[in-house]
Amino acid sequence: MPLTIRTVKEINRRDILFSVARLPRSSRLFLGSSDFKVHDLDVSQNNPQSRELVGHTSYVTGVRLAGQSLISGSYDGKLIWWDLENRRATRTIESAHRRWIRGLAVSPDGTKLASVADDMVCRLWNTTTGVKLHDLAGHAERTPNHFRSMLYVCVFSADGRHLATGDRVGHVKIWDVGTGRQVGSVEAPILYTWDGVQRIRSIGGVRALAFSPDGRQLAVGGVGRIGNVDSVAGPSRVEVFDWARSQRLCEFTGPQGIVNRLQFHPQNDWLFAAGGGSNGFFMFYHTARRAMIQQGNLPMHVHDVTFNEDSSTFYAAGHNKVVVAEIRNSGTIGERGA
Amino acid sequence: MVRKIFCGSPEHPISRRGFLGTLAAAAGTAAFADMTALQVLGTPAVSADLRRNQKRCILLWLAGGASQLETWDPKPGAVTGGPFAAIQTVVPGIHISELMPKMAQRIRHTAIIRSLNTRNGDHGGGSRLMMRGRANEAGLAYPDLGAVLARELGRPGSPVPDYVSFYSATEGRYNVTPGSPGFLGARYGSMDLTTSMVPENIRRPSGISDQDHLARAGLRDFLSRGFERGRSSDSLESHNQAYQRVHGIMASERLFDISREPQRIRDQYGPTLFGQQALAARRLVEAGVPFVRVGRAWWDSHGHNFETHEELVPELDHVMATLLDDLEARGLLQNTLVITLAEFGRTPNINSQLGRDHFASAWSCTLSGCGIRGGSVYGRSDPTGNRVIDGEVGAPQIFATIYRALGINHHKNYHVGSRPVPLTDPGTQPIREVLA
């Protein structure tokens, strides 16, 4: 099914935006920023002016909605709950993690928050009380080459039973949300480039994860093997697994750069990917047919994307920009587990 | 009874054992009898003398250009500052990146210079500038820092190399290796270790035993001494010195063998190559090598700068802190200058790949140990790190400071033919604020 992607609005920013969430049935976005703030921005306005939520002391790398609350996570290791009407912090967990928080996810029923950080632990929290439910530990703190590792991303399955986490060296673990136990794993080592000859350092890692609507497949995204680790000048790459069997089903590559966001179509097997290198890109991939449907450019390196209810619009946040784009002839890609 | 008189006459037979024993007692051949420089220098009298008097230098060369904003001159909260916080060091008022908690506890050994403006953002040109302290002139090749220190701090007839360089990555290797002795000549060139921790081609052939090796050296020396009687020649002396140096360097293989260190020392430096080479550097300076460069490549973080520095800066922090601790524990730090330096720093501006690019307008280096007023900061950059606003210095001033810290007169002249060539350009002043 052909797709037409049309950019309807570009909002220039001075900051770098790492995460985006959208208030349902609105164009009101919440953006995690490099200026250490969360920005409340209504993109339907002609000249949108953001309202600031101030409380973090480093890059805000995760923003997610849980009911009427917005929850943010940051490199400062803090989680903050925000009252959206008053734009005040209602709860702050100062040392939610002892190192930099990289991402957040909220369960489909809105009751649980997952946070991942470079202390290599994923933590599950009650979104209403802020009580910690589980520590999901098992990702190695050091890479095979003795350097600190990083834990980048987490995502819930559509039924909320499972959670996946992905790290620097391509390890992906799947957890039972109820018990906090690991129930599976897949490996995507191509997404991690260690250069032990030219530059003696590394780049890459698992940057994006998405469960298929039936929960059986897990898409893993990042950048493929890079010859020069000075930049992300390698092929963007996605691998799709039958995670219960630890079996890779397919993989595809795209424009030069790194995939930072993945999301499955809830009804017809399309897989959406977005990311960037020097510029930004998006891809729509048909996993059943194993064919690229559409790919194109975006005007900035994209860090996060969210969709509206009928999937006619997506909102991309990234380097110095917010982009609003309309999709024609699409199915319905709704917001789940994000 | 075996006579111990040697004149070459068949009437005075030479006992092999006596011959070797006599040679061993002769001045200048001690290294032959005991081929382990560390053992020779480990005698209390000798090692104490070295500790008191000989200056040495270890250069931690952060090839590719480490970011000053993620190390020594953080700007948290600035639009250019990035995500990392600054932490208070043990010296009130001095903050460095949160990625360096160990050095924050040891900053009393270290002077930070935050006001380098060297105007060359090219890897090759910047490397040559920052290794020589000045740009070459047409027709005049200046020696690099290692060659100058080999000349100024090396001991005549030293059995150990004077200038050792470790550089294992292939990227950027030829910006600094081989070392450049310039007009000082090959005598002060570097021993470059790139593919191995141990010098290659210095082992004796397997078919020659230690005893035969010693005997050959002894015989050559005996015959040379005989030839020298009644003759005076610089080339003869140079020839003998060259053989002494060869034998010494052959013996110094053990200096590079870090497996000879106790496991706990090796564990302290850690399992990375950089740590291992820093440990080798300590062994070398302890044995009297005046200059060792440990090149840690490759910091050129055009993309994913913060993750690159999250990977490399903690390693630098750990290795540098361990090295300073080790030198101090051995009584060597007061006579050893430890430098962190690169060809340039990195842009305050963050590009679209979350990277920082080449930047030579406002960056940092450090000097620790010998001759340095530790716990000091010289110079300032503006709140975003885009320019120097106080205490601007370039490569010449850094080199004048290094020489002064090591007790070398930076105004002294070498001569190229009849032309006097000063160590630093006339009028160059060291940064006195960081000198002890």
CATH class descriptor of chain B: Alpha Beta
Main sheet overview of chain B: 8 strands, mixed
Query: Roughly what percent helix of chain A?
Result: under 10%
Q: What is the count of DSSP helices of chain A, taking H or I runs of 4+ residues? A: 0
What does this structure look like?
The complex is a heterodimer of chains A (338) and B (436). Chain A has a domain at 4-15 and 96-306 and 319-328: Methylamine Dehydrogenase, Chain H, CATH 2.130.10.10. Chain A has no helices and 28 strands. Chain A has a six-stranded antiparallel sheet, with no helix packed on it. In chain A, strands 5-6-7-8 form a four-stranded antiparallel sheet, with no helix packed on it. A four-stranded antiparallel sheet of chain A has the order 9-10-11-12, with no helix packed on it. With 338 residues, chain A is mainly beta. By secondary structure, chain B is of the alpha/beta class. Chain B has a single domain (55-198, 257-434), classed as Alkaline Phosphatase, subunit A, CATH 3.40.720.10. Chain B has helices spanning 16-25, 30-33, 37-41, 44-53, 101-104, 123-132, 145-153, 173-176, 210-228, 234-251, 263-269, 273-286, 305-329, 395-405; strands spanning 56-61, 86-88, 95-97, 110-116, 163-167, 191-193, 291-295, 336-341, 345-346, 358-359, 363-369, 376-378, 380-381, 388-390, 413-416, 419-422. The N and C termini of chain B lie far apart (62 Å). Chain A binds chain B through residues 14-16, 34-36, 57-59, 75-76, 100, 118, 145-148, 150, 197-203, 230-233, 276-279, 300-301, 319-320, and chain B through 64, 76-77, 79, 82-85, 168-171, 270-273, 296-298, 300-304, 307-308, 310-312, 314-315, 350-355.
List the helices and strands and how they pair.
The complex is a heterodimer of chains A (338) and B (436).
Chain A: E1 4-22, E2 28-33, E3 37-42, E4 51-54, E5 60-66, E6 69-74, E7 79-83, E8 88-93, E9 101-106, E10 112-117, E11 121-126, E12 132-137, E13 151-156, E14 162-167, E15 171-176, E16 182-187, E17 192-195, E18 201-204, E19 208-211, E20 217-223, E21 235-242, E22 247-256, E23 258-264, E24 270-276, E25 280-286, E26 291-298, E27 302-307, E28 313-328
Antiparallel strand pairs in A: 1-2, 1-28, 2-3, 3-4, 5-6, 6-7, 7-8, 9-10, 10-11, 11-12, 13-14, 14-15, 15-16, 17-18, 19-20, 20-21, 21-22, 23-24, 24-25, 25-26, 27-28
Chain B: H1 16-25, H2 30-33, H3 37-41, H4 44-53, E1 56-61, E2 86-88, E3 95-97, H5 101-104, E4 110-116, H6 123-132, H7 145-153, E5 163-167, H8 173-176, E6 191-193, H9 210-228, H10 234-251, H11 263-269, H12 273-286, E7 291-295, H13 305-329, E8 336-341, E9 345-346, E10 358-359, E11 363-369, E12 376-378, E13 380-381, E14 388-390, H14 395-405, E15 413-416, E16 419-422
Parallel strand pairs in B: 1-7, 1-8, 4-12, 5-6, 5-7
Antiparallel strand pairs in B: 2-3, 4-11, 8-11, 9-10, 13-14, 15-16
Helix pairs in contact in B: 9-10, 12-13
